[in-house]
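Continuing the series of single-chain predictions for the mutant panel. This is the parent chain; the variants come on the following pages.
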Amino acid sequence: MSFPELPTDPPQQLIDLLPYSVKEFISIAGLVATIKLVNQYKGRRVIFNTLAKDKAIVSLIGYQAIQAFKRCYGSELILIPSCQKARSWLKYQPIFDDMYLGLSNAKISQKYDYSERYISRLRKSYAIERVNPLRNKKVA
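Parent structure:
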């Protein structure tokens, strides 16, 4: 299962998982343009002055956005992060939904064909607490 593309209308939980540099890009050029840029150039280094000459990227993210990036970064070599944590959150979202419903690690591992240990690591890495749905209390 490969990692999905980031949606152009992400929920706040996903935005919180984005690296600081991507949040900075959002403040410069807007959310939609930034997400499109990240999906296209994830994990690569770019120079916005050079990138502005590429008609495909200008049509993808828009002239205004590329000009904003040029004004801010000019001829600097900038790494476009791959946003791995956010992409993995999207990939495992159905599992997280089951966690929030209160399913045990054993049931989730059977349903998605992962080991219980892996499900436990996912739960810990995304700080999802185990909840007993009958009592609505945390389980140790």
